[in-house]
Input
Amino acid sequence: MFRPKLPDVPTPTALDGHHAHNPVPSAGRTLAPYVGPVAAVVVVGVVLTALLAAVAVTAVSVAVAAVVLRSLVTSATKR
Output
């Protein structure tokens, strides 16, 4: 409704006898609008995977420490 009217641009004519080639229209959408969201999803996935790995390593180390402490406590009470 409020779009400005653009003037018509004349097509250039070749002076040396060759015809000017018109560019071929693209078949579909460009991928440029999808680069940002895809990069964000990849970064979030990497961060979440790293956090999950950190939680798993922490859980394993706490479990090992608990087993060692239990072993020390039970061997001290048997003496």
Remarks:
- Helices lie at 32-78.
